[in-house]
């Protein structure tokens, strides 16, 4: 117990002394967090708090080792611990580099995976899980699960670092809970490691609590997340029951929950999963209470509650553990609902999303019908056959009227241009509208095709301004070319119903397919004339 207290106190005192120095270093070298729309602070603040915590952690463990107690003799730097520390340094430096240079998300992810891979090579892995009487061995999947475990903790701590003192306080309580559990489980070396970590975080909190004069930064959040993930596995989690696996997850329940919800939310609204926004739990909670300290203290209280539940899971039987987990799950759902997260997942949006997915994958009947009609259009050999197939597409897409105006033409010789348009030069001729040019130069009247449903709520489809009419006019021209074959006009009466899913996307596919067929038919005409 004395050794654990020594580790905690040494890290605390070192952090209290080193954090102001780290703050000056951040201001001197430009490791600053600048104000922005998604930030709460209004002036630049150094992002080097993680440097003080990291150095305090290492020096505290060095002091414990020099103290030469029975527990300190366990701190031998074997291959497993050395590789874990190397991986920790990789992640810490990655975060520190991001604080200064702003690394791309993909590069940061790859470097995080590299740090985890180094620890995995040293034997820090999740190899099995016991569920009741069933012992599940992961085999080759062990590496994937280990990487996901580390990445979850690293990014959970990073995402929750949005309010003064929030990330530091949440991780401090989680680390102290792991100290208690490790001590009760006679895993004294793990308890010393977590004690050193929690002491360093607490010393940093002296300067990070609202109003903060220094931030944790990505270097600090990556280091803390990596350390908690790695030391939890090293402390015996990797071969324990499901309840034991959930202990560190529950202790960091808020940031872990926020990470999962943020990923789902960004995916649902089409944003980058690793992008930044103001939709995190702490942002929503702050908008409700309108006070940074109250929001942070409220999240502290929830974290302490989750830590208490984690302690109960250690001693609870299977039935009680299951009840506690159900209770936590219900509470999480209620909490997410109160914060408005379910606005992204109501019934209408879910059904619409499922329809979109089935359409993209080609499962929906409508998508398969459309693809079949596309093939029929591409095989059309005459204009009449083409129009007949277009009508089937318009009917499938629930349009009510369609018109196709064509003017087949080709660049004329200079002599023919003067005959058709004596006052127009070549450039002016090419800039003339297709319909005007067609009425002057074509040898025959351009064909017109019209289709209309038998039962319509409007009389005159030519009237663009009619009420409730949705009209699309598609130019039938080659991309990047001045050759125009005419236009395709589609009309929908909204009083007769809505357009189907993906209608506009399919309309563009229809336009491209029609242009390809018209180009082929026109080429055949020119070949026959020649």
Cα-atom Rg, whole angstroms? 34 Å
Largest sheet: 4 strands, antiparallel
Which strand order do you get reading across the main beta sheet? 6-5-8-7
What is the global morphology?
Answer: elongated
Task: Tell me the distance between the termini.
Answer: 100 Å
User: Helix tally?
Assistant: 20
Structural class: alpha+beta
Tally of strands: 8
Average pLDDT score: 79
Question: How would you characterize this protein structure?
Answer:
The chain is of the alpha+beta class and 530 residues long. The protein has 2 domains: 2-252, no CATH class; 363-408 and 446-529, GAF domain (Beta-Lactamase), CATH 3.30.450.40. The chain has 20 helices and 8 strands. It has helices at residues 2-29, 49-67, 79-101, 105-121, 141-160, 166-184, 188-208, 217-234, 242-251, 253-268, 281-289, 292-315, 318-338, 347-360, 365-378, 383-396, 414-420, 426-431, 434-441, 503-529, and strands spanning 32-33, 45-46, 128-131, 134-137, 401-406, 448-452, 469-477, 484-493. The strands form 3 sheets. The protein has a 4-stranded antiparallel sheet, covered by helices on one side. A two-stranded antiparallel ribbon has the order 1-2. Strands 3-4 form a two-stranded antiparallel ribbon. β7 (469-477) and β8 form a beta hairpin. α1 (2-29) packs antiparallel against α2 (49-67), α9 (242-251) packs antiparallel against α12 and α15 packs antiparallel against α16. The model is unreliable at 237-241 and 409-444 (pLDDT under 50).
Keywords:
elongated, four-stranded antiparallel sheet, 530 residues, two-stranded antiparallel ribbon, Beta-Lactamase
